[in-house]
Amino acid sequence: MDLRQKQIDAVVKMLNLNSPAVTTSTEEEDFKVLVLDPFTRDIIAPLLKVNELRKYGITLHLMLGADRQPISDVPAIYFVAQTEQNVKRIALDVSVPLYDTFHLNFSSPLPRPSLEELASECVKTDSISRVNKVYDQYLGFVSLEKGLFSLAQPRSYVKLNDPAAKDTDVEQAVAGMVEGIFSVLVSLGVVPIIRCPKGGAAEMVASELEKRLRDHLVTRNNLFTEASQAGGSFQRPLLCLFDRNFELAVAVQHGWTYQPLVHEMIGLNLNRVTVKSSEPSAPGAPPATKAYDLEHQADWFWSENCTAQFPKVAESVEAALSKYKEGLDEVNRKTQMEEEEAASGLSANTQNLMSAVNSLPELTERKRVIDKHTNIATQLLGEIKARGIDAFYHLEEEMLTSRVDKAEMMELLSGSAKGTSEDKLRLAIVYLLACETVPPQADLDSIEAALKDAGADTAAFSYVKRMRSLDLTSQQGGASALGPAAGVTGLDWADKLYNQGVSAVTKGVKNLLSDGHMPAVARVLEVLMESKPSPEVDGYALFDPKVAKGGAAGDKAKGPFKEAIVFMIGGGNYLEYHSLLEMAGRNPQAPKSVVYGTTDLVTGKDFTSQLEELGKKMMG
Amino acid sequence: MPALVSSSGTSCRDRTSEFYAIAERLRKQQNKGDSVPPLAPPSEDGFSKRTGRLDDASRSEFSKKASRIGLGIHATSTKLNKLTQLAKRSSMFNDPAQEIGELTMVIKQDITALNGSISDLQAFAKGDYRSNKQNSEHSATVVDNLKSRLMNTTKEFTDVLTLRTENLKAHNDRRGLFSKESSAAKGAQQPLFGPPKGSLQLGSASTAASASPQEGGQSQMQVMMPQQTNVMESRQQVRGEGIARPFQIPVAPTPSAKLKPRGEGCALPSTSKLASRYPAALASATHPLCVRGLSARGSRGCTKG
């Protein structure tokens, strides 16, 4: 299940004006311009670079919202989201006309009223014949890696958990997720078995998604027919939906491996980072920066080390550098030898020299990659030292896996200790989540006081504290933790959506304690994929869009599964993604394939600020 | 229900006919039943229909020129593919030298002509009065794209020629090992065989059957492969072996040339010179064996024989 490759194929086909790709075209060359909006630009950016776009005949890529000038005699490919605003703008472009012909592609299905509006505008300006094609693409997601996608829907945790959220807002957010996941399933060509914990946003999305799939599957020529005929695997994958409340700790804790650190400390966006340049800039000028792509295909170092712990990464950079130097010496030695032999007339063979020369481009490329990671690692190291990230990481890890040491934590929270106020706040939240029972009020007070001393806003802490106390209430009602949770406390906002989601907060954490360090999502997924009997997943809801409504799910629905798609509602991160990859690869005899998706990839810092926002709303 | 287009595992939905049906209905409403010519979605046949372009006459001069060049490059690539196959297929006993020679010349001329057309196109784009900034950017990219495609073709071309030269050399070496006569003849040929400094030559375009020792490698057009010069030159002087190429690409050897990949910065030769000289080369079917000068390996072959 290489989601990224499938999306690339689909985009390339679109750039070929939706004809099957012709590699050795005997036709005339066609040049085109591409018009994007911010959402589709983010879709394309990690897939194709500008020079690749050129390869497919794209001379210019322009933003729909920007000022654009007419370009004569060229077809334009529009690839935009299906918004009303975009439709209006397209109608305007067609009426001018800005380009010769218009090939319209919408990232998700264009609603019928919008299509009618577009037609009506074009009829008014008598420009309809310039619209050559109108296509619905099912590409409304950003695929970053083979098994990683994001729906680029930021702040969804706040949207779904906001006590003041209107039903329509929540419904809209859920509909957006359903459409995004539907696009992913169309791209993969699979109709999965859907599982999720009962209650909360996960079940809501799951049942809406089932409805969407069911409605679509009744049409005869549906989007999945072809895929199933084209020799797709007989076994259907498992789609597992979780809500961020299922496990909060992994979203807040500090990472210690390369990719999560880069994401958190430098800012990894669409597989790109911007690093302060090592070369000194002119005095007075803003510090020079350098942007790097971090992609598995083009960067061997990244694909080898992105899940490695930071000290190991630093070692690998060293090792790679010395290996490069050896390679360079080798080339120089061979060249030298060749020259000497040539001069003395001994050698009749340029083989050595040729091989040396041929290895040079590869060496240069190695050097480029090494330099890039030297720069990134240097900046990371500076940040880690300044904030004492290692100490935070180790303590949090200890809390989540073995024991909770409040004294040690208080030391780190104190004003004299390293770390930003946000680091300290995150540590305190992890502590709160890791404790088996809610700590006594006196402890909480002293933590809050310490946080305030450190300059942190305690709203996020209060929010998590409230959630934990809700959880506790429900647990007194029974070990199953399935009873109504929030109703007891009279907080109807939580009741609205999360009467179950909330109680799962500490459940995930406890699982961590019992099974070494493995985020709850990975552990639950393993159980579901291997269809092991486990009381933990007995209560999970099951949806099979292929089975007639009311009919019993067949044996196939029970697994075991080789392939799974995990979707985290409310924001995921690289730490969680890596834990799934690790789980999937743990048994080399029976490797599993896992695709991880989320509404948005959020750093611990971003997520904490969403908690803070909710905390403030909760307090009024 | 809108038609479904799905191939190569990716799916999307074509809603063009749905769109046109709506437009048709709206137009009828507008015109209150007056007869209007029906709207039809663009048909699928043919390429210009695919892009939705109108007839050729309505296209701009720039785009006509550009597409002509694009087609030209494509045609040249096709010829080049054929040449590559011929060069790879050739063996010591079956060497389609004439065909290779002719194709080489044709491709050479093509590349030169295309190079000229691209320069024209570039000049034309710069002088286009209707141009705005984005239009110029578009034109510039079109020119760049054509240039880089032509450059790739040229590079492939030089690669094929290198391959060809190596093959011929291998054939010659093998012959040298088995033929006494040729070694003797080669000795006699020696005075004729002084390659000009800074160039490489060998008897190319030759067949084993047609032995005409006196022609030597001299009438060959010579090519000096860019940036290999230093190496090859010294090699040549050491071994006294001629390596000729069907034409010459003048390039100033750079000091660091040895460490650069080949095929960069190679200037194109003027065709007139080539065109006039090449047929001569073809006519004088040279014997490869006689091209060999006095070389360590040559004499080794002699003693062995």
Automatic annotation (TrEMBL), chain A:
Member of which family? Belongs to the STXBP/unc-18/SEC1 family.
| InterPro entries in the record | Sec-1-like_dom1 (IPR043154), Sec-1-like_dom3a (IPR043127), Sec1-like (IPR001619), Sec1-like_dom2 (IPR027482), Sec1-like_sf (IPR036045)
Q: Which UniProt keywords apply?
A: Coiled coil
Q: What is this protein called?
A: Vesicle trafficking between the ER and Golgi
- Gene Ontology biological process: vesicle-mediated transport
SUPFAM superfamilies in alphabetical order: Sec1/munc18-like (SM) proteins
Specify the superkingdom.
Eukaryota
Which residues fall in a coiled-coil region?
314-341
From TrEMBL, chain B:
Bias class Polar residues marks the residues at: 201-221
Among the record's GO biological process terms, what is one?
Answer: vesicle-mediated transport
Q: Where is this region: Disordered?
A: 27-61, 173-221
Q: Which GO cellular component terms, listed alphabetically, does the Swiss-Prot or TrEMBL entry include?
A: membrane
Biased composition of type Basic and acidic residues is found at 46-61
Q: Which residues form the Syntaxin-5 N-terminal Sly1p-binding domain?
A: 9-29
What is this protein's record name?
Syntaxin-5 N-terminal Sly1p-binding domain-containing protein
| SUPFAM superfamilies referenced in this protein's UniProt entry, alphabetically | t-snare proteins (SSF47661)
Tell me the organism.
Cymbomonas tetramitiformis
